[in-house]
Amino acid sequence: MLTILPQLAIVIADLAAAFLFLFGLKRMSSPVTAPSGIAYAGIGMIVAVAASFLYALSVETEAEPYLLVNAALAVAALAVGGGLAWRSGKKAGLTAMPQMVALLNGAGGGAAAAIAAIVLLGGITDTAVLVVTLAGALIGSISFSGSLIAWGKLDRLIKHPLRFKGQQIVNGLAFLATLAVGGYIGFITLSSNVPMLAMPLLIAIFFGLSLLFGILMTLPIGGADMPVVISVYNAFTGLAVGLEGYSLQNPALMIAGMVVGAAGLMLTLLMAKAMNRSVSKILFTNFGATKAHKQSKIEGELKPAAAGDAGIFMRYAKEVIIVPGYGLAAAQGQQKLYELVKLLQAADVTVKFAIHPVAGRMPGQMDVLLAEAGVPYDLIFQLEDINPEFETAAVALVIGANDVVNPAARTDKSSPIWGMPILDADKAKQVYVIKRGEGKGYAGIVNALFYKDNCNMVYGDAADVLTQMIEAVRGLGKAAA
What we know:
Elements: H1 4-27, H2 34-52, H3 67-91, H4 97-122, H5 127-154, H6 167-191, H7 199-218, H8 226-248, H9 251-274, H10 279-284, H11 307-315, E1 319-324, H12 326-331, H13 334-346, E2 350-355, H14 365-373, E3 380-382, H15 383-386, E4 395-399, H16 408-411, E5 430-435, E6 455-459, H17 462-480
Parallel strand pairs: 1-2, 1-4, 2-3, 4-5, 5-6
Helix pairs in contact: 1-2, 1-9, 4-5, 4-7, 4-8, 5-6, 5-7, 5-8, 6-7, 8-9, 11-17, 13-14, 13-17
């Protein structure tokens, strides 16, 4: 048994960790305070991990000879895991963040599933603990294998969704088989009946089926649904960790898991709303599939423009609204963009940024991108705040964004993005779109905005185009001097 002092220290550490998690999450609600919020949550995790070593004072007598070895293994695991996470975090560029988030989601889900496996193999007598442990094992395993598939898709290792006839039936049968094996494990554990197979084998089958379902559920998902997928698995991982915290009776684990799970659920709801999809439809109705639609005929033509001409036009505009997309992140053009913005501001041009909730490949990616370039937060506006201003804006500059500015979402009922809230860039007096080519967005449809009379295309890598715009604007200043 723990003596009173270590027990008191664990309780205090768990409360401190819980406070730091919640305080950190609160500060993450704003880009201004988000860096310190991440630091506070990280400190909370360090406190919780350090306190867990105090449980070594309560091991069974039979385990005492292995205590030193196990403690050394735990320290080594922390060093290896922490070192790899630190190194990969420092190396990963902004375009690789979605992949990294997917991997970390998977790691969290896998850790929760591993805890559940150990608890199940150790034997459980309490019904509530057994049900919670099995639920955590199922959710954690799905999150682990599903996140790995999501990582493969985001990293372009898996380039196309895998869909086949009867896929939903196969997925449903796999899920029912998983539940049946889990239920059988629970029945055998509580009734003490002799199982048809050895219990370790049954547990292995249960985990195998859970992992298989995670793979089957994620394979048909297309790139357009990736922001929602990441949010869903984030919520799954948090829930699994919270459930296993209950199994271990660890308050810090329970609170951390529930905080992550609740935040992931909220993010999922926001992403679903931003893509005009209900969560139930995403989860239970042909998850991730997009039906073949015949797009309405688009009138007009693509009108190329020179980067320098576009830069000069913006120099004499009264207000410019910039819509950044994944193409800006891929080109690493954020520094050049802010350099152009400062030149325009120096010429008394009002510049604002418009951010769509699902811009990029993960929620918040554009906010982080602009923050890295040093763009002041008071220049950045979300969809519902900036949309009314497009009608009076002289210029909308769209950089590497596609579906989130496609007016077909408002006008074409046959479009797969019909009803999706978009940024009203097409309502600006003049629109410039920086794009590498004439490719389609994640939804796989032609963007009607590009063919409108008030829109010109500026083709090229975003960083190169922005450099040409900067040179053109600076050239005006030199000519005036």
